[in-house]
């Protein structure tokens, strides 16, 4: 499909620079079939039904944004996929000044060797020393805010908390599964009281999620791989819930993509551990999920293509037009939508 079919105009003032306070006070656009309804995230217990299961991503964002030098050259690096105990693939700013074998000094005693350049322009970095890389990043790194926020303000101490979900446990993401940012312990208790369950899986979100689609046709775009895991107990529980008539509602496109990667043509979710580069566009037949809660996405992005695959492109264009006119806040710190085909 032509990528320009997924374009729309978004006024810059609609981009949220801070999350709602409290988190579950964020607005929620319900799109159920052709019906559009304005609500709040805290209304979820009334919008779902007993037996439904919300599926969250428990990945934890690491301080994956680094600033350093190779000699006199200033080098910026955003880690996006782990390849080994000390090896990461990174998008590098000023990459033309980096050659294989160069040492990049990131300050605070943290350095890495540029080992190789990949076909997409990414560079493999091997971190020096014996300390765990997680400790090195805590010293030298900063929270990797999305470019549409980072371009308007610098990351600060608030982001260290604001950009983590209440489920964040497994370190390894360089972007938050932002739909889950809206949840609070109080909201989870209210959902449980209504018989609405929840489960967790892990997908370490990579910075590739923010890369623009440069191709003119979706057939020519290639997704970056991300590592994920669904354990056997979780797969069994989700299959049992569906068999009993419950709906699986993915909280975030990351949860959805991993669930779809782990599900066969028979609709059975299987344990999964490994990389996925699934790219969902209109025409895709969903096998694992019955609904999606997600924030509002960039024009021409793979994520807007995904929600268009779930609900229909024209329906999503109409829903986004309503959200823009009604003053909804967009992107990672913005409001949410609940999409029920």
Automatic annotation (TrEMBL):
HAMAP family for the chain: QueA
EC number: 2.4.99.17
Pathway where it operates: tRNA modification; tRNA-queuosine biosynthesis
InterPro entries on file: QueA, QueA_dom1, QueA_dom2, QueA_sf
Recorded family membership: Belongs to the QueA family.
Name by which UniProt lists this protein: S-adenosylmethionine:tRNA ribosyltransferase-isomerase
Species this chain originates from: Sphingomonas oleivorans
Biological role: Transfers and isomerizes the ribose moiety from AdoMet to the 7-aminomethyl group of 7-deazaguanine (preQ1-tRNA) to give epoxyqueuosine (oQ-tRNA).
One Pfam family this sequence matches: Queuosine_synth
Superkingdom of the organism of origin: Bacteria
One annotated GO biological process: tRNA queuosine(34) biosynthetic process
